[in-house]
């Protein structure tokens, strides 16, 4: 699959006729005779080809007057994999919109973060997605509103503002226009609802493209969990979240067809951002079929892929936090890195209340870490310099790590910092920046796997061999790591 698939009418028609869920999120089918739009896997009888038109986004469908299908609920399909495998202007803009930047800072704020004019951003989004940033943000608000209407007993006025609408009237008009039902009827039709109605408490399902192998994904998060910030409990990965309007606690549980997500938020306006960051953490918008197909073409990787297909890259909910933890993990064991991080959390993290107990703090913000006494850090002097330089660059804004990061530019900035070599930069690129092609041939686990599998073990030779895995080398890393018995590769019992 590739960018602009919606322009390939014949291919889209085949996908709709086969009801192929793999294409959900890549394009949307608008039906001229009914005025609705659907995901490709919609269970209804496919319309005649002459009655179908295809759009690249839900917002584009809404822009020209189509309403969301009540059967397949296209607004709840996984996001397009394009936005997580590209680093161009459109992809970076889409990641920022998903992170709620347009709602908080407007289109000028979006453009400023990207380093372009508002006109350039609007023109490129319209050309590729058929909708500008305001329409794309509006579609996201509508989806958030529907989620709150159907899964909580909150008053509609509270839902309107929590979803990001400026007024109750706009909320009512948008919901009616997008879903062809008023909010009250959406709630009445919901199959079930969380009866408690506790402000900030939500349970929802995060969809993904199958297959999804949870072993290394949740195994990695659990094995590296920082006490007080993260934990594995009762089959769920739990952690605290630093969010624009407040904080949150999330519990994520793998299931065969979805990820169960339980969110407790101090401010419901953070719902959209929290969901976006959890999806990013678990790499849920990836296209595992396309990734595994390419990696399987290598006869050495093929048995690894066939044994456990659908491995994802464990990412992060906070890019600056991960960068700090990457430095703490330089040349030490996983246990030692957790110990260093836990000390920082206890001394400098912000306390939070966990209704279920177990979690106690938010990971310290760069500003708090920049103010600490370097002599209090129990690490070698050179790594102490690396740590303090990083947190000062983050705190003063000279280095910005986020979904809007330009990958090559950010790599160059990181490499210029003292103590930052290729391994540290690439692990940050893979897990924090989200580069699907990040690769670090000097990693001990990668070199050990290479030797066992008969791959070249020297960095230069292994890099040359890995050229065939591009642009999915970060996923190849997951399969190579999985040959080892390290706890990161196994779902906790």
TrEMBL record:
Gene3D superfamilies: DNA Methylphosphotriester Repair Domain, DNA-3-methyladenine glycosylase AlkA, N-terminal domain, Helix-hairpin-Helix base-excision DNA repair enzymes (C-terminal), Homeodomain-like, Hypothetical protein, domain 2
Pfam families: Ada_Zn_binding, AlkA_N, HhH-GPD, HTH_18
SUPFAM superfamilies reported for this sequence: Ada DNA repair protein, N-terminal domain (N-Ada 10) (SSF57884), DNA-glycosylase (SSF48150), Homeodomain-like (SSF46689), TATA-box binding protein-like (SSF55945)
PROSITE patterns: HTH_ARAC_FAMILY_1 (PS00041), HTH_ARAC_FAMILY_2 (PS01124)
Names of the cofactor(s): Zn(2+)
GO cellular component: cytoplasm; protein-DNA complex
One GO term of the biological process aspect: DNA alkylation repair
Domain HTH araC/xylS-type: 91-189
Sequence similarity: In the C-terminal section; belongs to the alkylbase DNA glycosidase AlkA family.
Name this polypeptide is given: Probable bifunctional transcriptional activator/DNA repair enzyme AlkA
Organism: Streptomyces tuirus
Lineage, uppermost ranks: Bacteria, Bacillati, Actinomycetota, Actinomycetes, Kitasatosporales
């Amino acid at each position: 699959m590739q960018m602009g698939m919606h322009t390939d009418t014949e291919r889209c028609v085949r996908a709709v006729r086969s009801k192929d869920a793999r294409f959900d999120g890549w394009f949307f089918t608008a039906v001229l005779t009914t005025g609705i739009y659907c995901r490709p896997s919609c269970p209804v009888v496919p319309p005649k080809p002459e009655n179908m038109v295809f759009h690249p986004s839900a917002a584009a469908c809404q822009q020209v007057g189509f309403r969301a299908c009540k059967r397949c609920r296209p607004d709840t399909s996984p996001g397009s994999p394009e936005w997580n495998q590209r680093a161009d202007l459109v992809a970076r803009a889409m990641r920022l919109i998903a992170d709620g930047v347009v709602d908080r800072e407007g289109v000028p704020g979006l453009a400023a973060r990207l380093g372009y004019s508002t006109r350039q951003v609007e023109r490129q989004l319209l050309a590729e997605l058929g909708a500008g940033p305001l329409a794309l943000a509006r579609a996201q608000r509508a989806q958030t509103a529907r989620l709150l209407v159907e899964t909580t007993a909150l008053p509609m006025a509270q839902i309107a503002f929590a979803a990001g609408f400026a007024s109750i009237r706009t909320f009512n008009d948008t919901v009616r226009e997008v879903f062809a039902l008023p909010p009250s009827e959406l709630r009445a039709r919901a199959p079930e609802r969380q009866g408690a109605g506790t402000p900030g408490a939500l349970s929802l399902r995060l969809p993904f493209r199958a297959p999804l192998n949870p072993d290394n994904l949740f195994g990695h998060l659990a094995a590296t969990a920082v006490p007080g910030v993260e934990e594995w409990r009762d089959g769920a990965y739990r952690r605290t979240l630093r969010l624009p309007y407040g904080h949150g606690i999330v519990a994520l549980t793998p299931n065969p067809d979805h990820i169960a997500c339980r969110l407790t938020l101090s401010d419901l306006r953070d719902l959209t951002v929290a969901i976006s960051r959890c999806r990013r953490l678990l790499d849920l918008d990836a296209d595992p079929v396309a990734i595994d197909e390419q990696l399987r073409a290598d006869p050495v990787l093929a048995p690894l892929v066939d044994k456990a297909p659908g491995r994802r890259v464990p990412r992060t909910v906070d890019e600056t936090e991960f960068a700090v933890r990457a430095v703490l993990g330089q040349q030490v064991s996983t246990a030692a890195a957790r110990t260093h991080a836990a000390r920082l959390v206890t001394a400098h993290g912000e306390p939070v209340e966990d209704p279920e107990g177990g979690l106690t703090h938010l990971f310290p913000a760069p500003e708090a870490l920049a103010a600490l006494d370097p002599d209090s850090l129990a690490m070698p002097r050179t790594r102490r310099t690396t740590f303090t330089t990083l947190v000062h660059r983050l705190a003063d804004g000279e280095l910005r790590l986020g979904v809007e990061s330009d990958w090559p530019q950010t790599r160059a900035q990181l490499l210029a910092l003292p103590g930052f070599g290729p391994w540290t930069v690439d692990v940050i690129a893979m897990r924090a920046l989200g580069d699907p092609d990040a690769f670090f041939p000097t990693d001990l686990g990668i070199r050990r796997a290479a030797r066992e599998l008969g791959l070249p073990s020297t960095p230069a030779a292994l890099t040359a061999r890995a050229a065939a895995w591009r642009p999915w080398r970060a996923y190849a890393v997951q399969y190579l790591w999985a040959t080892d018995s390290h706890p990161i590769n196994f779902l906790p019992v």
